[in-house]
């Protein structure tokens, strides 16, 4: 993401799909502008994303990625990016980097905003369910392999995106405690800031 500091206008970054993109996504402190539409982060109901590379032999490769938003009023916004490579030459490397920039920008703004709503539910004693994962203030419920499992929140070290799956790790940040959740599932990526917040509370508690 291109870092921007324009003072009073509140712009915090710009994400492009190509170097000379004339219609980039512009991120502000409380909203983004995409395809001419202004979207408040609090108006986004679901977020999903996916990226993949398809290879044909050793010569040709195709990269494609998307990030989708569904607003509370039912409207949808899609951001897509793609590139080709032949014998190692092409735009795939750049397109992957631009997709990564867009993901990181969304993670620190719209995804974190939506995740904060889930955290409020958890803090108020509720249980949230995203995909096949359920979370409350004490436990995470899901599957490990084919078996159902419940993991104490105190055994969670955080979460991250890996190969377009949301992985929830134990305190060693090496071993996943439940099966990964595909990031194309609605709000699966919200589990990342949720788990990071819960893990931070664990480390903040006196031993």
What's the short story on this structure?
With 207 residues, the chain is of the alpha+beta class. The chain has two helices and 16 strands. It folds into two domains: 2-121, PH-domain like (Roll); 128-204, PH-domain like (Roll).
How far apart lie the N and C ends? 39 Å
For the largest sheet, list the strands in their spatial order: 1-2-3-4-5
Unreliable spans are none
**What is the CATH T-level topology of the largest domain?**
PH-domain like
Q: Class by helix and strand content?
A: alpha+beta
Strand content: 35-45%
Broad CATH class of the largest domain: Mainly Beta
Dominant shape? globular
Average pLDDT for all residues: 92
What order do the SSEs take from the amino end to the carboxyl end, as H and E? EEEEEEEEEHEEEEEEEH
Rg over alpha carbons: 18 Å
Share of helix, binned: 10-25%
Tally of individual helices: 2
Number of domains: 2
What's the β-strand tally? Answer: 16
Q: Return the CATH architecture of the largest domain.
A: Roll
How many strands, what sense, and barrel or not for the largest sheet? 5 strands, antiparallel
Protein model, in words:
By secondary structure, this protein is of the alpha+beta class. The chain has two domains: 2-121, PH-domain like; 128-204, Roll (PH-domain like). It contains two helices and 16 strands. The protein has helices at residues 92-123, 191-204; strands spanning 2-3, 11-15, 25-28, 31-34, 37-40, 44-56, 60-71, 76-86, 89-90, 128-130, 133-135, 139-144, 147-152, 156-162, 165-170, 181-182. The strands form four sheets. The protein has a five-stranded antiparallel sheet with strand order 1-2-3-4-5, covered by helices on one side. Strands 6-7-8-9 form a four-stranded antiparallel sheet, with helices on one face. α1 packs across α2 (191-204).
């Amino acid at each position: 993401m291109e870092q921007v500091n324009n003072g009073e206008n509140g712009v915090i970054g710009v994400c492009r799909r190509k170097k000379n993109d004339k219609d980039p996504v512009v991120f502000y402190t409380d909203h983004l502008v995409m395809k001419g539409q202004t979207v408040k982060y609090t108006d986004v109901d679901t977020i999903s994303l996916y990226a993949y590379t398809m290879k044909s032999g050793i010569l040709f490769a195709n990269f494609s990625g998307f990030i989708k938003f569904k607003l509370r009023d039912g409207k949808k916004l899609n951001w897509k990016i793609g590139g080709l490579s032949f014998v190692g030459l092409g735009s795939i490397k750049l397109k992957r980097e631009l997709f990564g920039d867009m993901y990181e920008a969304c993670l620190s703004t719209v995804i974190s905003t939506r995740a904060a709503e889930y955290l409020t539910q958890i803090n108020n004693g509720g249980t949230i369910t995203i995909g096949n994962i359920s979370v409350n203030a004490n436990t995470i419920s899901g599957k490990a392999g084919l078996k159902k499992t419940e993991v104490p929140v105190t055994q969670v070290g955080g979460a991250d995106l890996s190969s377009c799956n949301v992985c929830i790790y134990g305190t060693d940040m090496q071993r996943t405690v439940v099966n990964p959740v595909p990031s194309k599932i609605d709000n699966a990526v919200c589990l990342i800031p949720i788990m990071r917040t819960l893990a931070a509370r664990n480390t903040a508690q006196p031993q």
